[in-house]
């Protein structure tokens, strides 16, 4: 009996464990072009929140409340904690700050705030949150869509896309990106109208309350419908960006796939998110360490040039512990601006990783639900990996083989005419004998 033994030469981890695809998001999130896109997205979103504050919040609003609403994951001081005693910087609670959770929380903050209750929710605050939500969705429809498109191409088929190509793609699909997360809210608004009507009836003394109580079952039904619509939306809205970036589809397809994937494979989705959170926490540690070392080495070199006493006086002026002149105030403001940009490294990585992991998780869920291969992605004409088939046919109607290119005359090759068979030389031997 022959003992046949096979030798295992390699293991395709992508086929055995498809979720290892998420490990590629770590390095991809640190690409300069993705960090640049995330930086512009963060800066423009912060600008939109400030514009919304100036338009809809008056000067009597609590300054602390206004400060907490600024769209920034954390300030630079939260990542770079300067110690005035020795001038060193330390990284604070990096692993407790996860990019997946924090970006999701900040992105949904104005939407969740619109559902707040109480006398504090004035018309001005509601308008503030609505404007901020629309502004933020518009900004990340461009920059988040560009990041997702770059990630989808890289993770699926290894294609590389530049800044210009990603922004052009996001611009062409801007309407789909922008309207996809807003469509469910339109349906929720119409479902809420009967409940609003019952609440208006309750204004008319006790009789109105009695009528609202009698038809309270309508409010229960509408509430259940709104809850079932909101839960998949708030948990799976990042998949909408992945859908449009991978399929080049419209907002309706993005909404339907998001609801289908989150409801049909909830535990798969949870597993992929947990894996992405672990990877993102480690990446955030690297980003925080990079920002901290950048700030520390900059302060160290500056102190050698300015001197310890002068550097301490400048630091006191920055922290506001000592009075300062107008010129010093302007100078320290510029220095804080550059230090703030250093702190934005952490925020940029957080948003870059969030949208990159979104594209990876979408590819995995699509494979689980639709049995689609990971390398299946909608490509533009300029990004087609395979040439289109030839449409030429022969006399029998079959596809004709592609013609070989003519030899180039520049290298001295001459074209030799094909000799035609003469006097039956091309016939077979049996046919020749039969003729004789």
Entry summary:
Helix content is 66%, strand content 1%.
Detailed description of the structure:
The protein has 436 residues and is mainly alpha-helical. The protein has a domain at 30-80 and 93-180 and 265-383. Helix content is 66%, strand content 1%. It has 18 helices and two strands. It has a two-stranded antiparallel ribbon. Strand 1 (81-82) and strand 2 form a beta hairpin. The two termini are 58 Å apart.
What secondary-structure arrangement, pairings included, does this model have?
Blueprint: H1 13-16, H2 24-28, H3 32-56, H4 63-68, H5 76-79, E1 81-82, E2 89-90, H6 99-113, H7 123-157, H8 163-172, H9 174-179, H10 183-201, H11 205-214, H12 216-236, H13 238-247, H14 251-264, H15 266-306, H16 308-319, H17 326-370, H18 429-435
Antiparallel strand pairs: 1-2
